[in-house]
TrEMBL record:
S-adenosyl-L-methionine found in the keyword field: no
The organism of origin for this protein: Carboxydothermus islandicus
Family, per entry: Belongs to the class-I fumarase family.
A Pfam family assignment: Fumerase_C
Gene Ontology molecular function: any one: hydro-lyase activity
Protein name, entry field: Fumarate hydratase
């Protein structure tokens, strides 16, 4: 496991390769479809975003309400492809990482390479377990979206796997080919 800390530097991103297992520490932000649309529209108008995403990671998640003794409820990844139409613009703005699950479009993959960014996968179906790595949670934008609001999360050893690296290598493409050779 490779420990990394946010915000992500180019040096850290360039060292990561597909298949690397990482433990993320620091601040990450959450955003899903509706929040992405709003962020995209602000950027297109030349307006400021409600949070500074430069060098940051967005986690594609809509957490459930927290139980009384927890800072957040279940927090598993959602399908990343739903954000693909907005993601290249956010990467061009300065976003450096995304956590989700599933394939990304050709446009997103090109934007990852162009911006020296990275895409991580988190384990789907493990939201309760993943939530235990979140030590602080607060809504920082779009509270009207409920669980799809933008949250600022502080994480300690949040587990993820590099699935698209800054060179454009894609584990979803390379992994099956390697398996079929054996």
């Amino acid at each position: 496991m490779i420990k990394i800390t946010t915000p992500l530097s180019e040096e850290v991103i360039e060292k990561l390769q597909i298949g690397d297992e990482v433990l993320i520490n620091g601040v990450i932000f959450t955003a899903r479809d509706a929040a992405h649309k709003r962020l995209y529209e602000l950027l297109e108008k030349g307006e400021e975003l409600p949070v500074n995403l430069k060098g940051q990671i967005i986690y594609y998640v809509g957490p459930t309400p927290a139980k009384p003794d927890r800072v957040i409820g279940s927090a598993g990844p959602t399908t990343s492809g739903r954000m693909d139409k907005y993601t290249p613009r956010l990467l061009d703005y300065g976003l450096k990482g995304m956590i989700g699950k599933g394939l990304r479009s050709k446009e997103v993959q090109e934007a990852i390479v162009r911006n020296k960014a990275i895409y991580f996968a988190a384990i789907g179906g493990a939201g309760a377990l993943l939530s235990k790595t979140i030590v602080k949670s607060e809504v920082v934008a779009y509270p009207d979206l409920g669980p799809e609001a933008i949250y600022r999360l502080e994480v300690v050893d949040f587990p993820a796997i590099v699935v698209i690296d800054a060179r454009g290598q894609n584990l979803y493409e390379v992994g099956p080919k390697q398996f079929l050779k054996e």
